[in-house]
From TrEMBL:
One of its GO terms (molecular function) is ferric iron binding. Residues 20-92 form the Ferritin/DPS domain. InterPro entries: DPS_DNA-bd, Ferritin-like, Ferritin-like_SF, Ferritin_DPS_dom. This is Ferritin/DPS domain-containing protein. Pfam families: Ferritin. Signal peptide: none annotated. Belongs to the Dps family.
Amino acid sequence: MTVMKSTIPDAARQVAGSVLQSTLVDLLGISLIGKQAHWNIVGPRFRSIHLQLDELVTVIREAADTVAERAATLGLPPDGRPEAIASAFALPGPTDGWRSAMGDCPAGSSPTPL
Protein backbone atom coordinates (compact mmCIF):
# COMPACT_ATOMS: atom_id res chain seq x y z
CA MET A 1 0.00 0.00 0.00
CA THR A 2 1.28 3.46 -0.89
CA VAL A 3 1.47 5.90 1.99
CA MET A 4 1.09 9.58 1.18
CA LYS A 5 3.85 11.77 2.61
CA SER A 6 3.35 15.42 3.53
CA THR A 7 5.79 18.20 4.32
CA ILE A 8 3.29 19.70 6.81
CA PRO A 9 4.05 18.93 10.48
CA ASP A 10 1.97 16.01 11.72
CA ALA A 11 0.05 18.02 14.33
CA ALA A 12 -1.01 20.64 11.78
CA ARG A 13 -1.85 17.91 9.26
CA GLN A 14 -4.10 16.18 11.80
CA VAL A 15 -5.92 19.44 12.61
CA ALA A 16 -6.42 20.19 8.91
CA GLY A 17 -7.55 16.61 8.30
CA SER A 18 -10.09 16.79 11.11
CA VAL A 19 -11.54 20.03 9.75
CA LEU A 20 -11.61 18.65 6.20
CA GLN A 21 -13.37 15.47 7.38
CA SER A 22 -16.00 17.48 9.29
CA THR A 23 -16.52 19.66 6.23
CA LEU A 24 -16.84 16.57 4.02
CA VAL A 25 -19.47 15.09 6.34
CA ASP A 26 -21.44 18.35 6.34
CA LEU A 27 -21.29 18.73 2.55
CA LEU A 28 -22.38 15.16 1.89
CA GLY A 29 -25.18 15.45 4.47
CA ILE A 30 -26.37 18.74 2.98
CA SER A 31 -26.34 17.19 -0.51
CA LEU A 32 -28.65 14.45 0.77
CA ILE A 33 -30.98 17.04 2.30
CA GLY A 34 -31.00 18.85 -1.05
CA LYS A 35 -31.99 15.66 -2.86
CA GLN A 36 -34.68 14.93 -0.26
CA ALA A 37 -36.17 18.37 -0.90
CA HIS A 38 -35.73 17.89 -4.67
CA TRP A 39 -37.74 14.65 -4.61
CA ASN A 40 -40.53 15.97 -2.37
CA ILE A 41 -41.27 19.48 -3.64
CA VAL A 42 -44.78 20.08 -5.00
CA GLY A 43 -46.81 23.07 -6.10
CA PRO A 44 -46.97 25.76 -8.74
CA ARG A 45 -43.25 26.56 -8.60
CA PHE A 46 -42.26 22.90 -8.59
CA ARG A 47 -40.22 22.91 -11.79
CA SER A 48 -38.05 25.94 -11.07
CA ILE A 49 -37.32 24.88 -7.47
CA HIS A 50 -36.75 21.27 -8.55
CA LEU A 51 -34.14 22.40 -11.09
CA GLN A 52 -32.50 24.85 -8.69
CA LEU A 53 -32.15 22.13 -6.07
CA ASP A 54 -30.47 19.88 -8.65
CA GLU A 55 -27.97 22.64 -9.47
CA LEU A 56 -27.33 23.26 -5.78
CA VAL A 57 -26.72 19.58 -5.06
CA THR A 58 -24.27 19.40 -7.98
CA VAL A 59 -22.28 22.36 -6.63
CA ILE A 60 -22.26 20.88 -3.12
CA ARG A 61 -21.10 17.47 -4.37
CA GLU A 62 -18.31 19.10 -6.38
CA ALA A 63 -17.21 20.94 -3.22
CA ALA A 64 -17.28 17.65 -1.29
CA ASP A 65 -15.05 16.10 -3.95
CA THR A 66 -12.58 18.98 -3.67
CA VAL A 67 -12.50 18.69 0.13
CA ALA A 68 -11.96 14.91 0.00
CA GLU A 69 -9.15 15.30 -2.53
CA ARG A 70 -7.44 17.91 -0.34
CA ALA A 71 -7.55 15.52 2.62
CA ALA A 72 -6.06 12.77 0.44
CA THR A 73 -3.34 15.18 -0.69
CA LEU A 74 -2.40 15.63 2.96
CA GLY A 75 -2.09 11.87 3.27
CA LEU A 76 -5.31 11.49 5.26
CA PRO A 77 -7.98 9.15 3.88
CA PRO A 78 -11.35 10.94 3.54
CA ASP A 79 -14.33 8.98 4.84
CA GLY A 80 -17.54 9.44 2.87
CA ARG A 81 -19.09 6.08 3.71
CA PRO A 82 -22.80 6.20 4.60
CA GLU A 83 -22.15 5.06 8.17
CA ALA A 84 -19.51 7.78 8.64
CA ILE A 85 -21.93 10.46 7.43
CA ALA A 86 -24.83 9.09 9.49
CA SER A 87 -22.82 8.96 12.70
CA ALA A 88 -21.10 12.36 12.36
CA PHE A 89 -23.65 14.61 10.63
CA ALA A 90 -25.00 17.05 13.23
CA LEU A 91 -26.94 19.61 11.20
CA PRO A 92 -30.75 19.53 11.35
CA GLY A 93 -32.45 17.56 8.61
CA PRO A 94 -35.83 17.94 6.94
CA THR A 95 -38.97 16.27 8.16
CA ASP A 96 -40.45 13.56 6.01
CA GLY A 97 -43.23 14.07 3.49
CA TRP A 98 -44.09 16.51 0.76
CA ARG A 99 -42.86 20.09 0.75
CA SER A 100 -44.90 22.75 -0.96
CA ALA A 101 -43.18 25.32 -3.11
CA MET A 102 -45.62 27.71 -1.42
CA GLY A 103 -44.79 26.53 2.12
CA ASP A 104 -48.32 25.28 2.84
CA CYS A 105 -48.02 21.48 2.69
CA PRO A 106 -47.69 19.93 6.18
CA ALA A 107 -45.36 16.96 6.65
CA GLY A 108 -46.95 13.63 5.86
CA SER A 109 -49.86 15.07 3.86
CA SER A 110 -50.60 14.26 0.25
CA PRO A 111 -49.53 16.77 -2.37
CA THR A 112 -52.08 18.85 -4.20
CA PRO A 113 -52.18 17.78 -7.83
CA LEU A 114 -50.21 20.14 -10.07
